[in-house]
Each structure stands twice: as structure tokens, then as C-alpha cells.
Amino acid sequence: ANVLIFERIREELLVGKSVRGAIASGYDKAFGTIFDANITTLIASIILIYMGKGPVQGFGVTLTIGILTSMFTALVATRLVFDLLANAKVIGSDDSKRMLHLRPSAGLPKFDFLKYAWPAFIASWILVAIGFGYGFSKGEGNMLGVDFAGGYSMVMKFEQNQADQINQAIDSGSLREKLAVGTGIDGGQIKAELQTETATSEQRLRVDFPYDADAKGLEGALKTLFTEANLERIQLDKVGPSVSGEIQKSAFIAVVLALFGILVYVAFRYEYSFAVAAVVAILHDVAMTGGLFFLSGRELNAPIVAAALTIIGFSINDTIVIFDRIRENLRMGTRGSFKDVMNTALNQTLSRTIITSGTTLFTAATLYFFGGTVINDFAFTFLVGVVTGTYSSIYIACFIVLKWHGGKRPELAAPAVDTDPVGVTS
Length: 426
Description:
Blueprint: H1 2-14, H2 19-51, H3 55-87, H4 117-137, H5 140-143, H6 146-149, E1 151-157, H7 163-172, H8 174-183, E2 191-196, E3 203-209, H9 215-225, E4 232-239, H10 245-269, H11 272-295, H12 302-331, H13 338-348, H14 350-370, H15 376-404
Antiparallel strand pairs: 1-3, 1-4, 2-3
Helix pairs in contact: 1-2, 2-3, 2-10, 2-12, 4-11, 4-15, 8-9, 10-11, 11-12, 11-15, 12-13, 12-15, 14-15
């Protein structure tokens, strides 16, 4: 939201408006985009609250709170700060107009994004098919983690000076490989991680494995691998799936209803073709992320549910930002074919896309490289989802709208009038 506002302010400054005028006009023009982007996500989060169960319902509550607080801080708190700085004359001089640009003095970029839309569209769905085909070929046992399928969970204590060695074996994948050789268990069905005891701050080794595995044989293999660690079993539990069939079913129904709600809202605010394109782009992002997830050899667990839901929110936000600028250009009578109008909108929102996706990618990459094994699957899924969400807004959503209308400009509302609340400086 803040990026959208700041980019609008920068655009208003470039056309010669005063700082106060640019701020007022920037907030005014960005409001519609922010509102649409957040309402579509809010529709999904509220449905998750009422239709979801367990962690899915909790995700909906957290997401709803996050959306409301984000909108408040972006639209109210930052505006208040800007007004205070302007009144105190901290901003308002010519120096304050100097905002950095991704392409200084180069003007608006003129990339023909839709030139390669057909091959990109086809390649996307081929990759989705390959990923899911590979995942299903491995069988359900290798696709579902203990959170979905259930199994045994063994906890062992060890000499703390051996923690780095054990952790290195876990991160490199050598632990699973050696256990698979020593016990005959499929390495893909073994999950190991280090956990820290809250009371003592000591680390423990937790290993999850399927019901039909030999627990004693696995324990012996671990002790053989880490002889200096003096491993000692302190817990062995038979655990049921935390993401049960009921939770999976409720999550599926909630997501379907959420997509329908998004479809109705976007159709009401834009046009039916835009709504269908937005929903297909969301489905593409989840499917593409899932396909690449399976190709990476990972297994489904509880955090992946949260990652998939997060990707849905990110995908619709990015798509709405681009759709809003396309609609604005159509209303303002931007010259050229519908493809030209779309390419203009994509170039106009390019810096927004780079900044919003870039900052989110930075966060996801930090979680992936430094978050540890517990959150690694979530971080990987979200990292891929951010990339596919950005890509699909152009090569899935925009492409579908373009082909839907046969390249002709759709009939939208009457031309919008730019009402600048503060006059332009001479």
C-alpha cells in the first residue's frame, strides 16, 4: 500500500504539481487500487474464518487483522506524518521532490511484455503438468508429510557439543540418505530437525517416520551415525495427522468460496473478463508453486497450507494493481490498440511491481536461507509463489483479458476526470 502511494506521489511530482498537491493527489489516486486489492484478500480471509477449521481458521483471523491494520497505517498514519512534515516545512522545497527512479532520466520504459505471452502461457501449464505428474508418480506416501499422513515421532537428547554436526547432516540431506540405507525406510518419508527445549535451552533431535517403520532399527541407526553424541531416546509417540481430512476438506471448500467471492467482486468493479482472468491467475500460481514444490522432492506439511493461502493473497494484490491501471488508461482514452494500452499500464506499474515483489522476495529469501529447517518448506513455497504471482499477472491474467476481447478495447466506465485537490504550481 505504501509503495502504491509513494509511486503515485512521484508521478504527480513529475507532472509539475506542488509537494502538497502531489501528496493529496497521490493518496486520492492510490486509494481505489489499495481498496480493491485489500477487499479481494479480505473476502478470502473472512471466508477462511467462517468455513475453515484449525490452523486454516487461525490463518484467516491473522490475515484479517493484518489487512485492516495495514490499510489503517498506510492510508491514515503515513498521511498524518506527511501532513505534519509539510506543515513543519521539513518537506516542500525543491530538494524534497528528488525521488530516486529505477531508470533515472530515461522516462517511461517501453517493454513489449505481451509479445511473448502465447509461449509463456503454454510453457506455464506444461511446467504445472510436469510438476504434478512427477509428484503423483512418487505416490501418496512420499508426497504427504507426518502433518497429513501421521506416523511416529521420536525425540532424542544428545551431547550439546555435537549439535552443529547433527544439524549439518540434517541440512545437507546426508542424514536421511544414511538412515534410508541403514534401515530400508524410504528417505523421503524421514523428516529430522533440531528443536530447542524452552525450559533448559537444550537442543533435541526429533525424527518423524511412517507407521510401518522399525522404530528400534531407526534408533540404532541414529546411534551408529552419531557415536560421539551419546544419543538417548526420551520420547516415542504415535501421532495422528494434525492436518486431518476434515481440515483439508474445509480448507478446500473455503478456498473455492473465496475464489468465487473474488470473481464476483472483480466482475462488479471491473468486468467479467477481468474477474475470470484474476481467478485463473490465482489457480495458476498455486498450481505452479505446487508443481515446483513436488519437483524439488519435498513433502506436504502444515506450513504449506499457510504458504498456499499467502500466495493467493499476494497474487490477487499484484493482479489488481495492474488491472486498475489498465482500467484507468481506458477511461482516460489512452491511444493505441488494447494491447498497447495494456503494455503501457504494465510499464507504468513496473517500478511498483519490482519494489513490492522485490521487498517480499527479500523477506522470503531471508526465511529460506536463515530460517532453519522447520520453516524451510514454507519459505521455499512462498519464494516460488512470489515469483509466479508476479509473472502470472502479466502472462496469465493480462493475456486472458486480451484474448477474451479479441484484442479490441473493452467498454468500461466513462472517462475519469483528474480532480487535483491542490493546484499545480506554475
